[in-house]
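## Example pair
The file below holds two records. Each record gives the amino-acid sequence first, followed by its structure token line.
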Amino acid sequence: MVLKKLNCWEYIKCGREPGGQNAIELGTCPAAMDKSYSGINSGKYGGRFCWAVSGTFCDGETQGTFAEKRDSCLNCGFYKLVRAEEGTANLRTKFLRFVPLDRQRSMLDGLTYKHIKKGERFLTQGEEGNSAYIIERGSCIVIVEKDGIEHPVGHRGEGDIVDMMALLTGEPRSAHVEAETDMSVWVLDKDRLDHISDKDHELLDFFTELVAERFDSRRPTADRTIGRYIATDIIGRGGYSLVYKGVHERLNMPVAIKMMRHDLAMRSEFLTTFRNEAEIIAEMNHENIIRMYNFKERFRTVFIIMEYLEGENLRELLQRLKTIPPMLTVNYLLQTCNALAYAHNKNIVHRDINPTNIFIQKNHRLKLIDFGVACPVGTDDHFFGGALHYLAPELFDGEPADRRSDIYALGITAYEIVTGKRPYPEEGAAALMKMHRNQDIPDPIEVVPDLPEALRRFILTACMRDPDKRYQDADSALEELNKLK
């Protein structure tokens, strides 16, 4: 039986959680509100990391910053409870628990053993990172300094490894680290890391997965320099990449920087896909397709530097509006078809058309984004690519993607944005694949009775199960849509 881990307000019983008995009179505790702490120490928001959250309500009064309340927090029963639980929690990220006991001696043999005093800042943000620290005893807090303000972002305890990011990637240290208590640590330097990694690929995988996880923070992140560009804040997350907002250092031009997650960059098939995306976007020059500026391989991963877009994707717009009026839908479909026609004429199939990859800017200007699974027409790589709900039936039978499969995905997208739902019930992957193969989509006019006939005809034709009965390319689809202009 797994015991429930308490959040601070449940332990202290202050009543200042959302809806708590004291929340109206005294205000909701910041530790129960700040979602950027979600996931730290397996807590809800900042509720397991409350000693780093400013303005919490403890001992009958509102507390100050993490630095001001440090001493009282270290003596708090809740802090001691969390530290005790951390000894057996998060085993996947605990270096000393990942390594079996019979291998620890050989791995730790020869490492420098060091004692660190409580309150000492033993790592400094921006410095060269030529060593990491394996914690045998004690705990520390990780602090990112941004725009002159210090932001606590993480907590490391016994068995954890500190600052593997800088050691593995070769970048400057991404944060300050201060000892919360007296600490005893082993110092792992780069030469020793390389020696261990050459002999133990499983351990290298552990390190890279750990780095990938810690890069994906919802707290403020340190600025990172990638060539002429500075990455400032994470603005997007995908299954294999993070997207940063950035700026060209000399031109002061805003950019988006897409970084492949470090653990996937170690795998050749994902690295090939990422490079393929860069090569495809680099060849594109169309007003409705995101532009690429540069491509960098460094820090044991790869970066695509692209134009920075302001607005929201079509999925986010749908979540706000529920449905989109027919004439605005036609506007979006025309722009998407123009982008697809351009790509198709270059012999490129997008393979992942869906509302998430259609980005809406100011004045309803549209950009087609994320060519991560795009490929030349007729490529048969036995990889579906794309979101399951939008895949054409023939792809489930092993047929290669072509222009018509993009048209099908656009038709499903059009159905969704005019009706507010996808055409097939979502009862699991197998059932969904079967419906795509064997059932025509419902007539959208049953949901939207005043749907213009040309738009209805476009959706039904685009979503024909037989690819030969669909529009054969985006230019043919444009002919139908232009009747609604």
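Second record, same layout:
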Amino acid sequence: MTALNRRDFLRGSATAAGRAVAGLTALNAFSSSSSGSSGVASANAAVRPEAQAGQGGYGRLHEAGPELLLPKGFSYRVIGVEDSMMSDGHKTPGRHDGMAAFPLPNGNIRLIRNHEVDNPPALNACLGSPLTAYDEGAGGGTTSLEIHPETREVVRDFVSLSGTWRNCAGGPTPWGSWLSCEEAFFGWESGFGQPHGYVFEVPSHQEELERIEPLTALGRFVHEAVAIDPATGIVYQTEDLFRAGFYRFIPHEPHTPARPGNLRAGGRLQMLAVKGSRQYDTRREQRIGRPMPVTWVPIDDVDPQGGPDDRSFVFEQGFAQGGARFSRLEGCWYGDGKVYIVATDGGSAQFGQVWQYTPTGPDSGLLTLIFESPHQNVLNRPDNVCVSPRGAVLVCEDGHARRQYVRGLTSSGRIFNIACNVGDESELAGVTFSPDGRTMFFNSQGNRERNTRAKTFAVWGPWRAGAV
């Protein structure tokens, strides 16, 4: 469509992984009964059903070092600090965000890390050489780290994607690459040299910076995270807007045991809709544990070329056909035949929801709300998510509080603390595990007002003492 037709369309439509965690409903049932009909708990942290040691949790957090509180018996190492010099001669960029870990042939760990840099357009703002940048005026991208599995020390690190903007989250592919998502919708009209709002694929075996082009068929919108079903090759995608959709991309050449997926070969983009409930609003007054049958509606114009005023154009196409509305979908992770997605400010208390999508057929599935935070003391604005090696759902907080947590949810419906940053009011992000399951990695984004730098943490300890 032309830009004029898109505006007319928007105006018209505006009027019109891990194991099943069904036990999480126990926590929400408790919250509802504790707080009356609204389902919003009272802020009394002492009565929340927390998983103690022996119940899936790891007990109280203790000072493990100047940056983190961890359970007793756990240790950590700081790696990849903002502004530290990397092996390729470039300084480590800041705003550490989504990550994933992959095995390397030599036994080491490849960690690929997003950088949510959101600079104004500027000549040569890109990481590395402009010759290898998608857009030399954009300062975001990814860095790749090689980590020794025993010492958790960095063997080498380098820029692996350059010239992108506000690389927030993403997700690993079954064939060993990282999909890095731009939480953006800007382009030439804003002074950049290229349009932004795409997904980029960074191979885990890549050993130096190369120019990478966007996967335009996956759509141009305010991307957040992706998760791929290895059985079908379908790519599920979240969108970080207050009017957001949940999408799936069906590739023409999906992943199979015999060959890796080829996302550049194109495919079909669709948006989730709840059967029998046109334009269903998931944000408030939802019932925990109720599976809702869903279907998928097509997105015809997946790559709109307008400016920021058109950032909701992909969503509005699906919404006009009855698609469901979420608010600020962020984390997305695949596990045990299901996809877990996080609505950061969803729920009656607006402190976050965790949804589970279960495919039931080529064009059908079930959407179930499995957790809703009743208060910030329980879970404060969850963002990035992953499923631990033993099936716990882990979430990073982005709640603008003095201390942010990495928290876990057990299969029996109890929440527990895994880590807490100390004092810099910094968003946590990028929680993921090493291929052998022994090391948890996550990021602290740093705080510009407090002049604290972004850091990546490696955490290890007696994981088998709890649910992780």
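Notes on the second record: DSSP finds three helices and 26 strands in the chain. The CA atoms of residues 59 and 81 lie 29 Å apart.
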